[in-house]
């Protein structure tokens, strides 16, 4: 059964807002629209439960229960234990806190592998550990295609000194979907653990982290139709080995060990609305399924099929032009539908011109300075980024192509 796009778009109030209704939204990689269940839960929390949670009175107890519900349901979708899921103020902050834990955990002579395909949030905090004596090894992309070849990782692991490999599930500009399970297996065989940045992948279907084998997996709820929270999955045995970064008296609670800041109660509770939305999609399209990870997997495949069909015409159009450089694969099945192009001019004025044609998108470097530099893109000109998710329609892509014809 194909994705029922009418049903999907009814779950997002933005599509009925007068100021947005006639605009085609292609800046989803910067943050998706919020779904109705998230908005409802956030509003209810602020209206009825905006008190310190987990207390003995009704409003407080209800707030704590809803926060626990969010953690339990999202963890179940990802195939992990409930206490292996942590919330934080952002993925950038979660990664920074993790880096501080590894700074104390690593021994002299041990090394970390980072890539030049990453958003800076999963690169900079690890690279700074080089100032503390940790050896930093860079796994480089192909400068023409942006491809991150697992074969290039193998020699970096050969001497057995690497303890951590950090890489993206997919880049926010290259967008090629990396073979996470294969890379994790290579790292584990060499005695290293893995930290996977899933920010640019999770909006296209929350992955089964247990099946991927990743030791740490991070993504941002606000790009997965939710509130502005960072979500981190960390394997229990690793998380309990790393030095506690939270209050000392919370050190025996895994999901508190890497959250030194006070949690945002309302946004954590509202994150349960992400699970509500995914379950609503499943119930609308499939027979009942009691296993949350299987439900999430079915919805993942449904979303990806819609995105592949919608994105391919744009890739074909851009690939046929001789005045743009399409970054990443030309086959929609091998990439996220985040499409970056380098132009023969500065990109930001082009995004502004597209806005005049009813296309909402943006341009710049998107904190992907390292991959763009490695591929020879002029950072002053930047790239035009056209990003979609499962609620993007083929009609909107056709409108985008027509607008690009006029603007370019």
Automatic annotation (TrEMBL):
Pfam family, one: Aminotran_5
Keyword Transferase: yes
InterPro entries linked: Aminotrans_V_dom, PyrdxlP-dep_Trfase, PyrdxlP-dep_Trfase_major, PyrdxlP-dep_Trfase_small
Domain Aminotransferase class V per the UniProt entry, residue ranges: 25-242
Keywords: Aminotransferase, Pyridoxal phosphate, Transferase
Transferase is among the record's keywords: yes
GO MF assignments: transaminase activity
Protein name: Aminotransferase class V-fold PLP-dependent enzyme
Taxonomic placement: Bacteria, Pseudomonadati, Pseudomonadota, Alphaproteobacteria, Rhodobacterales
